[in-house]
Design goal:
The complex is a heterodimer.
Chain A: E1 3-14, E2 17-28, E3 32-36, H1 43-50, E4 58-63, E5 66-67, E6 76-79, H2 91-101, H3 106-119, H4 135-147, E7 153-157, H5 165-180, E8 184-189, E9 201-206, E10 209-215, H6 216-222, E11 227-234, H7 241-247, E12 249-256, E13 261-267, H8 273-283, E14 284-291, H9 296-310
Parallel strand pairs in A: 3-8, 3-9, 6-7, 7-8
Antiparallel strand pairs in A: 1-2, 1-4, 4-5, 9-10, 11-13, 11-14, 12-13
Helix pairs in contact in A: 2-3
Chain B: H1 3-17, H2 19-48, E1 51-57, E2 72-77, H3 82-92, E3 96-100, H4 106-112, E4 114-117, H5 123-145, H6 149-155, E5 163-164, E6 170-171, H7 175-210, H8 214-218, H9 223-259, H10 265-268, H11 280-300, H12 303-331, H13 339-360, H14 367-374, H15 379-386, H16 398-426, H17 436-442
Parallel strand pairs in B: 1-2, 1-3
Antiparallel strand pairs in B: 3-4, 5-6
Classes of the chains: A alpha/beta, B mainly alpha.
Chain lengths: 311, 445
Amino acid sequence: MQAVLSVREVTKQFGTYKALDGITLDIPKGSIFGLLGPNGAGKTTLIRIINQITFPDSGSVLFDGEPLKPEHIARIGYLPEERGLYKSMKVGEQALYLAQLKGLSRQEAKAQLRFWFERFEIGDWWNRKVQELSKGMAQKIQFIVTVLHRPKLLIFDEPFSGFDPINAALIKDQILELGQQGASIIFSTHRMESVEELCEYIGLIHRSRLILSGKLSDIKKANRTGRYKVEWSPREGGRGLEHLQEQLRISEPVFHPEEGSYTFTVQLDDPQKAAALQLLAGQGDLSHFSEWIPSANDIFIQTVQKQESHG
Amino acid sequence: MGKLGLIIRREYLAKVRNKSFVIMTFLSPILLVGMIVLIAYLTKVNDNETRVVAVLNESAYFGDSFFTEDGVSFVQLRGMGLPAAKDSTIAMGHYGLLHLPNLAGPDQVAQGAYFYTREVPSTAVLQTVESVLEDDLRAYRLESLGVSQEQYASVRQGYDLNTETFSGERSHKGINEFKAIVGGSFGYLIMMFIIIYGGFVMRSVIEEKTSRIIEVIISSVKPFELMMGKIIGTSLAGVTQFLIWILSAGMLLFVVLLFMDIDPAILMQRPGMPGLDQGLADSALAQDQTARLVIEEFIQLPMGMLILFFLVYFVLGYLIYSSIYAAIGAAVDNETDTQQFIFPVILPLMLAIYVGFFSVFSNPHGPIAVAFSLFPLTSPIVMLMRLPGGIGEGGVPLWQLLASLLFLLITFIGIVWLAAKIYRVGILMYGKKPTYKELYKWLKY
């Protein structure tokens, strides 16, 4: 697995405040990476370092295996959390300007813009001033400007904040498509549930430190709790829940009178699983059995708690 | 086109296409010319009004001296007493009544003469009337002394001491002031330009912050490039505006004055000074001579050198100040927060202008003038006021000029570097107005 971006021991200090403390992580090529953590954890500082807006006090960042250079800017697309446009400039002119700043020639920029304006069906906005556009419209322009130069690495900082649900879905689809075309994507957000389904890899930042990173499925596996959600109804005349409770560690049982069924959680080690299933199926009607998988948010909270109890 | 070029182009176009900028550019010359024309027109109207003064001459003197001149015409009243003359003057609506009583000699008549008017008489009319009596009195006295007009004229010859510097340069009274005015105009131009367009740079930075586009831009270009592009683009727009102002104001003024048949010289005339008792020819000659000397000096001014140093001081001075303005814009979120930072910036500019006008005018090479022309925040203005005196002997010593330029250059590099640091941090800071202490901390980020 090759990394499009490798962050090595990056530390950044603002006065007496340490914004980043020895961060090391890899963004695999072609992956969607979730950079997660609460507000103020240091996500934006890290992103600004990747975009060469600020520079680390120590540590290094490698892009495609080489140390970050100004030329790399043309291969990165960045949609910042604090984003906007020149209000009194015309849409087309402004998009051309921003694209040219990213290193595109005027002709290339025009061709790309035509493509995207058609895709978003906003061709007639070209000569309108930004101040005449609604917030959602302006955000479409910002998105286009971010991806226009076909960057290898796309960075979205809180991408869905401020988008209405329809536009958010539209943008999400576009991002996924860019991912399929081979771009590597970093999502940075404090709302972990909003990107969990999209991300293959995640990194959790808490208080300037990276506390967890890797493939999301691996992380989830490692954070398995052995808890299973069960819906089960006892067989007519058979033994009830009490019998199960004698043999299994059952918690939170709830009886549903209409269905005549119970839902509960059962704690199982892997070797016990087969026997438990047999027992459940033998003694009644098993309608639901699934492992409870913690969300990124749960994992995050657990990890933070674990760390804090360790000191 | 490089990124810096792109930024300069955008900043220039954004400024030049701005509605209020366009309106200011084209309205200002019209307003300026309109004002000048109005003043000229009013002066002309004022001059054209002829005031009638009634004269009741009961004496044997001053008989044929009252001719219409300088907007005053005279009407002789005869065969009535003073009260009747007053009444008829009022009835006729004349400006005033001059009464010359019947006394023994011209001196006595003049002593006993009275000028009656409805209100306090205007200085211009009073001067005209006085000069009539004065000229006549002089003629009577000369006659009684047996001196002819020609003899008198030869006695009245003025005298100017010839002056020369040790290096052999001819100099004239008032020429220091004149030179300082030429340099002062350059200095004043720099100050105005800095205040107007430095403010534009600052507002443009604030706009980028409030519209939140700044982070999008600096993910593509270096903050320093953006800052310099902004400063250069805005100043090019400023130069464009200045050129349009100068050209259009000049053309408009010329056309309007021609059209309205107003002699441009009217604007050059100084108001007559009371007490100038020289004959008309005399004063014209003197004026002519002064004008000739001024023009001579003007031609002798090292214009090429002046313009060269004007450009050098202008570019460096403007870059220093506008990068400070850019840093201020980056440090705050809105324009109302800028006041506390702007005052210390304008202070040295004002100081330079005042020191220039009070100290450099009287002694271009005195210690105050030298100090302020070396200090980099004031030197662009003060040195330009000293430079019309030339470089080297009799002018600005070469070492002072070089030292001044060196300090300016070092300050330029230092200030731009500091401003860029504050700018780089400030553009990404939102929310609160920073204190000076925080600005200092930013330098270390």
